[in-house]
Amino acid sequence: MPYPAAAPSCSRDQLLAEAREAKVMLPSADAEVAKIRLTLDAVDAQIQILEATLNEFGDTAKMVRAAQTELQTRTEERRRVEALAAI
């Protein structure tokens, strides 16, 4: 039984043409990579600024929630006292 014919391989000329085409595109790709790196650097800088700002606030969110809970507790106490005073 004969073996199936092998798929034709790329010719040397075709490979050289593709290599030349890739070489022509390389500066454009390098410029795009550099542009992406600049964007990433800017984003990283913004993230650092935001993290520093968050660190300045520390536990502010916890403190606000605690104050809200305290306010709610005091409001409930006042209502109970007012209800007792109305009797």
Summarize the structure in words.
This protein is mostly helical. It has one domain. The chain is 84% helix and 0% strand. The chain has helices spanning 12-57, 60-86. The termini are far apart. The model has no long low-confidence stretch (mean pLDDT 83).
Please tag this protein with its features.
87 residues, mainly alpha, 2 helices, 0% strand
Summarize the SSE layout with pairings.
Layout: H1 12-57, H2 60-86
What value does the average pLDDT take?
83
Number of helices in the DSSP assignment = 2
**Unreliable parts:** none
Q: Tell how many strands the DSSP assignment holds.
A: 0
Overall number of domains = 1
Terminal residue distance: 108 Å
